[in-house]
Design brief:
This protein is of the alpha/beta class. Helix 5 packs parallel to helix 6, helix 6 packs antiparallel against helix 13 and helix 7 packs parallel to helix 10.
């Protein structure tokens, strides 16, 4: 199939984006609680006639292939990937699905034959694909981090509210039992007032702190122009695909972007990590083009109503937080997890997806038999994919990690760490104005310009 040349559809989309950006930055209020607009009754285009959901998938290799497999109980009507060789296994498994390289052409040509869209591209292309689908009235599921920049996240919130579509970010751990237990236990005061939280990950496991690779010949099966998309134009290199793009600012969001929306999710959910915050970072190897080899990012929240001041610290690369003394002198931390320090105890979760919270020391967990009542609705089998599908059919509640109530604000919290890393000095975030109040020059990392391709 031939790839269309740059056209007025793309330009029109970015004109619309610009107007939404102004709306999101200056008018749309921040969501600190459940919005009436997210009631299932307010959604449009729900598939309520008993048929299967007709889904289009953008990005079908790697994580996209995994996402695709989890949606196949519905009707996948279209597949899109800029590299047909990388998508070959998925194409072969779904021979009846229409095949495209350009998501714009797919959405335009398929039109009403698509109910919903799953987006599993590199980070820099989440936003343009999601915005076009939402403006066409399609329900969307977008991989994490939801967007490449904070401004993009807010634009998608505004667009989702306006279009009345069902949305979900692909941080599947939000559907876990452990995420709910963490929130219920903290809210019940099991470890008292939480004063500090530590997160850590073994990422990056791809090159970071490196120069952009040298030019190489473009493989015949790849449309490099479409892969680069809205990012600045540059020559192809196999060192960027299919995975190492995560380490370059033009395409990815580094270790924080890869794992932050997973590991930090339960704490964000339980402690409402929104609003004004001071963020500082120390890192190694960060440059204008590359994310750092390692970093430590500290978020400092002031008193917020009845919430006490809180310090939240992220460790990646070779950095890890101190091992809690409750684990014993010889203990070591896992590849990733979180630690909550309250004035009445410690909560540890050594799972990247918040699936295994436990109290420390082990003796306290064993004695923890009179547990708080379960107050948060559970997702059957913790299946986030089915959670989204059911909501698109009007058969279930709003997905927990929907854009309006959760995913956009979580993404903003995570990406603020990258703003501080790139700024090279502490930032003071004014959430209402969407600006770094003490360092206006850092605002250039909150938004970006786009290549028309």
């Amino acid at each position: 199939m031939n790839t269309p040349k740059p056209n007025t559809v793309t330009r029109r989309r970015f004109i619309q984006t610009a107007s939404l950006a102004a709306l999101a930055a200056g008018f749309i209020p921040r969501s600190f609680g459940q919005s009436a607009n997210t009631s299932p009754a307010r959604f449009k285009n729900l598939v309520t006639d008993g048929r299967k959901l007709r889904i289009a998938c953008i990005g079908i290799g790697g994580q996209g292939q995994y996402d695709n497999k989890n949606l196949r109980d519905e009707e996948i009507v279209a597949l899109c990937d800029v590299d047909f060789e990388r998508g070959l296994e998925t194409f072969s498994a779904l021979p009846k699905a229409a095949r495209y390289r350009d998501y714009r052409q797919m959405l335009t040509e398929m039109g009403d034959r698509i109910d919903a869209v799953s987006i599993s591209t590199p980070d820099h292309m989440h936003f343009p694909a999601a915005l076009m689908a939402i403006e066409m009235g399609k329900h969307v599921r977008v991989q994490k981090p939801l967007t490449h920049t904070i401004e993009e996240a807010r634009i998608l919130k505004a667009a989702a509210l306006k279009a009345g579509v069902v949305t979900q970010m692909g941080n599947q751990g939000h559907a876990n039992e452990g995420t709910r237990l963490t929130k219920e236990w903290i809210e019940a005061g099991v470890i008292g007032t939480v004063r500090e939280v530590h997160f850590w990950t073994n990422r990056p496991i791809w090159p970071q702190g490196v120069a952009l690779p040298e030019m190489m010949p473009v493989p015949p099966t790849l449309d490099w122009n479409l892969w680069v998309g809205v990012a600045p134009e540059r020559p192809y290199s196999k060192e960027l695909m299919p995975f190492a793009w995560r380490g370059f600012w033009d395409y990815g969001c580094g270790a924080l972007g890869d794992m932050g929306c997973h590991i930090m999710d339960a704490a964000f959910y339980a402690l409402d990590l929104r609003g004004n915050v001071k963020v500082s970072a120390v890192s190694e190897g960060c440059s204008d083009v590359s994310c750092p080899k390692s970093s430590i990012v500290t978020y400092e929240f002031p008193q917020r109503g009845d919430r006490a001041p809180l310090k939240v610290v992220w460790f990646d690369g070779q950095n890890k937080p101190p091992v809690p003394k409750e684990l014993g002198p010889d203990a070591k931390l896992s590849m990733g997890g979180s630690i909550f320090y309250g004035d009445k105890g410690v909560l540890l979760d050594t799972d990247d997806y918040n699936a295994a919270p436990r109290l420390l020391p082990d003796e306290r967990m064993k004695a923890f038999t009179n547990r708080p009542k379960k107050t948060i609705p559970r997702v059957p089998k913790a299946n986030s994919y089915q959670e989204w599908i059911s909501a698109c059919k009007g058969e279930g509640p709003v997905p927990g990690s929907n854009f309006v109530d959760h995913a956009v604000d979580l993404t903003e919290f995570v990406l603020l760490g990258n703003v501080a890393i790139r700024a090279g000095q502490p930032i003071e975030w004014d959430a209402e104005k969407m600006t770094c109040s003490n360092l206006p020059e850092a605002d250039r990392f909150v938004r970006k310009s786009y290549r028309v391709y």
